[in-house]
Write a structure and sequence with these properties.
Chains A, B: Residues 256-269 have a biased composition (Basic and acidic residues). 2 copies of one chain form a homodimer. The first copy, chain A, has 269 residues and is of the alpha/beta class. Chain A is 43% helix and 10% strand. Chain A folds into 2 domains: 4-167, 3-Layer(aba) Sandwich (Alpha/beta knot), CATH 3.40.1280; 181-268, no CATH class. Chain A has a 7-stranded parallel β-sheet with strand order 3-2-1-6-4-7-5. In chain A, α1 links the parallel β1 (12-16) and β2. In chain A, α1 (21-33) runs parallel beside α7 (153-167) and α8 (189-205) runs parallel beside α10 (233-247). The longest helix of chain A has 17 residues, at 189-205. Residues 1-5, 175-182 and 250-269 of chain A have low confidence and may be disordered. Chains A and B meet through α1, α7, α8, α9 and α10 of A and α1, β5, α5, α7 and α9 of B.
């Protein structure tokens, strides 16, 4: 179900001088949700370890306990072969600017080829300095509404982590199972036609089709409409139960006036 | 860079019984970042208005101040023509399961065609009930790591909002149009629920649901089954005619024994 490339290690996430411990913990959780594990922090304002960070990380211990602390951005990215820097708005820098999906695809290509990749995230208010950005190969910018740009670090990490994971799925839906309840198979056309004829018979009995000349058109409309649902075999049985109940008024325990006719129709299928 | 179709209104976000005010506010902020504005909340645990929510919404006033409160999910989605339900894991429900990008593309297609779309988010711990999910046309599931699934509501809202915005930036997706034959628009949830209740009333009258304890399960099965067809408004009218004809046996020219009851039910809608 999941593409084998999901087994590739994910990119490193590097938080530069995060101010709030809570954001570090929430970033760890965001990463864990999408299978990333390598979190690095550079010179956090409130020192390290940080209890606010641990609490916000909640159950993401396998990410949190591996967090590595660095004094400078240069040290934090030293082992990486491809680095993207996240910036909120485009700057006057001679670098390719990508969206998150495109950046995730490039990173996966590198990691599959054995090159370690990483994503650089800036400080809460002022982001990354131009000097820090210059360490990156490319820039990734999120398509936020310019009139309301208020994404925090953990949210930006979440979206990049999501795109990383998505880039490893053959198609977006390949990680998802398509199930029908009770393993019911799609109805055969014969079963579907059985339902149609049952319903149309019940409608004939109440003179639904008036004037009679219009019957073929209305029948065709009804059939097209119901066909859209792609009923399963179990669905057909349920719906025939519904039609039978409605045409069997009054309720089943009592004898019906026209019972014979209906029984013979039901017996046909 | 920005496609003109970004000007299309975004889908509604519906939070069902959110427990923490903070999540409501953070969801509003997440939406604002990606240009969504229509936030609806159903029966929030701590009542409304909620100061925690307002504080968490920060500067997203233009979303927060327009939040609408509803008592039931049915009322909250009544005006929508296409609804996706977010669920954490696949369930035994006969609905198409999509990833966020695919769902966003479908929603954009609908909204460009003038059909209002919405996304349903469940409660913090227990998500959505099967009955609530049955109101949706399709299911959207995020590709989270099954070994660490700990996304909160606001994070799920963030990713769907991000994908909504992204769907407006990519030319290959913005070209999609969803049209229905005969210019009939998709039925609103209100119209659909009207059909369901009409049919269930008719089935009650013939004691279809036996034993009575099983009624909720059978009702849900029926609704899920019929929902698959994505009926148009014209379809709903036709089907209500079918149900009315069948419950009106014997044929319309003759007086019915229980005519009063049926008339009153029909008058309700």
């Amino acid at each position: 179900m999941v593409d084998s490339e999901l087994l590739v290690d994910g990119p490193a996430v590097i938080l530069v001088e995060p101010q709030l411990g809570e954001n570090i913990g929430t970033a760890a959780r965001a990463m864990a949700n999408f299978g990333l594990r390598d979190l690095r922090i550079v010179n956090p304002r409130d020192g390290w370890p940080n209890e606010h960070a641990r609490r916000a990380a909640s159950r993401a211990d396998h990410v949190f306990d591996r967090i590595r602390l660095f004094q400078t951005v240069e040290e934090a990215v030293a082992d990486l072969g491809y680095l993207v820097a996240t910036t909120a708005r485009s700057r006057e820098l001679a670098k390719t600017v990508r969206g998150p999906a495109s950046a995730a695809g490039i990173m996966r290509g590198h990691m599959v080829g054995g090159v370690r990749a990483g994503i650089l995230f800036g400080r809460e208010r002022i982001g990354l300095t131009n000097e820090e950005i210059s360490l990156a190969d490319e820039i990734v910018t999120l398509p936020i509404d310019p009139q309301f740009a208020s994404l925090n670090i953990a949210q930006a990490v979440l979206i990049l982590a999501y795109e990383w994971r998505r880039s490893g799925l053959e198609s977006e839906e390949s990680g998802l199972r398509f199930t029908t309840p009770n393993d019911s198979r799609p109805a055969t056309k014969q079963e579907l036609i059985g339902l149609f004829e049952h319903l149309e018979g019940a409608l004939d009995a109440v003179t639904f089709f008036r004037p009679a000349e219009k019957r073929p058109v209305v029948v065709q409309t009804l059939r097209a409409m119901l066909q859209k649902a792609q009923f399963t075999e179990a669905d057909i049985r349920t719906l025939r139960g519904v039609v039978a109940a409605l045409e069997n008024r009054p309720t089943r325990p009592r004898k019906r006036a026209d019972g014979t006719e209906t029984t013979s129709r039901e017996a046909e299928d």
